[in-house]
Amino acid sequence: VEVKIEVVIPEKERSKEELSPNGKASPLIYKVNGTARHYHLEEHPIASNPYHNPKDVVEASVCHVKDLENGQMREVDLGCGKALLIKESGEFHAMGHKCPHYGAPLVKGVLSKGRVRCPWHGACFNISTGDIEDFPGLDSLPRFQVKIEKEKVYIRASKQALQTQRRTKMMAKCISLSNYNLSSTNVLIIGAGAAGLVCAETLRQEGFSDRIVMCTMDRHLPYDRPKLSKSMDSHPEQITLRPKEFFRTYDIEVLTEMQVAAVDVKNKTAVFKDGFKMEYNKLLIATGSTPKALSCKGKEVENVFNIRTPEDANRVVKLATSKNVVIVGASFLGMEVAAYLADKAHSVSLVELEEVPFKKFFGERVGRAVMKMFESNRVKFYMQTEVSELREQEGKLKEVVLKSGKVLRADVCVVGVGAVPATGFLKQSGINIDSKGFIVVNKMMQTNIPGVFAAGDAVTFPLALRNNKKVNVPHWQMAHMHGRIAALNMLAHGTELSTVPYLWTAMFGKSIRYAGHGEGFDDVVIQGDLDDLKFVAFYTKSDEVVAVASMNYDPIVSKVAEVLAAGRSIRKRDVE
């Protein structure tokens, strides 16, 4: 059944804000409780039966009603695929059993107050709807029907959903794109990382059906950037977050290799480097960061890389195979690259100014345990020194000279010494930027300019977890959530950011998971065995746990994240 409804609002009730950028009133806006919303109702057909094809349906008895206690989860087999069965508050729920992000088994995750949190990377799913509520990842989980007959629990599910284990939320489309002026859009998103993509998808999920344009300096559609250092030989098409058809289907326009040179907030116009101008109604700035370069002598020689694109990562792997690699900076990127190349290169040397990797982030004891793991995998560390010169032979890198006087043979060098926010183009814009170059936003991702939002690595925002202290959290999960919050507030929902930061790093097939915000921690309480790399570390400030990290100790980090997300505090004595 296709239902078409046209809502006509009297002229006097339309505010200027609700006009399309080309000056024509959008027929898709109507008011709900005084809030402007865009809906394209054709996108929401009324379905009497969620399973259209009876041959695609399987129904199976999976357990007795007494087999599960409240608060328990079980992976159950329906013959042609598995589902996650959950019992909470006396009710049964069934949905996909694998996290759509990287396929983690959700039965090993954490069930708390109507949602399941992934044990690997912290994504959260509503057990009643299957909808994704915290990130990373883009898709939700399929939800299956549960019925109780004669004390037995039955699940009825689509075979296709059991096999795919993911569900893309229903989205609106843009109406009559042909009517639009090419140089104007309702929403302009600068940057096509996680924040930009989630913003565009959330707008469509919420029924917004006006024009959305994303622009990026990259030559690719949005891709899984963390894989650049964790899985370096991945090709762009293997790590793309959404295929080309997705952007076509939901009318999300992506302008690749397009750089914005300035933003004129008075005239609501973005000026591109090539002189092209685009008017907008709402703007999201999600430009991320720019890697810092080395400032030493010889920095322009060939085969010195910042890993910024899939091409950079692929080229490094090719050049490093059976050759000598020097990595400058024991950052997340530097350490992940070292781990990835350790069994491919002839030698891997890592140069770092600190005495221990990750000291400021994970603390000295965890840092030393990680360093030991790297050394046992043939990575050589040169600590408390830096690069003074890069020497070349026939234009290509040959040696890296350290300030300590040591000379390292090097065929390729990867630089991972941090990054700066990519906000230089905003200097004259009037948008509030702090002394370090970060865009300052509130809990709704709004800047000081009405209608201008910012998200991701380029912003500082109030973190609820740390009494609304302004922080910068340059991590993948947080960028997703920023994009979602920005989109909801473009639609005047008044939604505030309250997520718990969650991140992970992968090295030599092992992961360190981390939740919270440990900046300024004054003590670390460690349980487990650091030498055995099976531990949990609680980072405390005064008497309070502000962050947690673990290795081979799942799902402790997700458990702590759920406690902190509920607004409860954990005291130092609780973890000692």
UniProtKB/TrEMBL annotation:
Rieske domain location is: 60-155
Please name the SUPFAM superfamilies in this protein's record. Answer: FAD/NAD(P)-binding domain, FAD/NAD-linked reductases, dimerisation (C-terminal) domain, ISP domain
Q: Which compartment or compartments is the protein found in?
A: Mitochondrion
Q: Give yes or no: UniProt keyword Transmembrane helix.
A: no
List the Gene Ontology MF annotations in alphabetical order: 2 iron, 2 sulfur cluster binding; metal ion binding; oxidoreductase activity, acting on NAD(P)H
Give a yes or no for keyword Electron transport in this entry.
yes
Which keywords label this protein?
Answer: 2Fe-2S, Apoptosis, Electron transport, FAD, Flavoprotein, Iron, Iron-sulfur, Metal-binding, Mitochondrion, Oxidoreductase, Transport
Residue span of the signal peptide, if any?
none
Main subcellular localization, coarse class? mitochondrion
User: What are its GO biological-process terms?
Assistant: execution phase of apoptosis
Looking at the UniProt record for this protein, which Gene Ontology cellular component terms does it annotate, in alphabetical order?
mitochondrion
* Pfam hit, one: Rieske
- Tell me which CDD domains the record gives: Rieske_AIFL_N (cd03478)
Q: Tell me, what does this protein do in biology? A: Induces apoptosis through a caspase dependent pathway. Reduces mitochondrial membrane potential.
Q: Indicate the family of this protein.
A: Belongs to the FAD-dependent oxidoreductase family.
Q: What is this protein called?
A: Apoptosis-inducing factor 3
Query: Which organism is the protein's source?
Result: Urocolius indicus (Red-faced mousebird)
Could you tell me the gene encoding this protein?
Aifm3_1
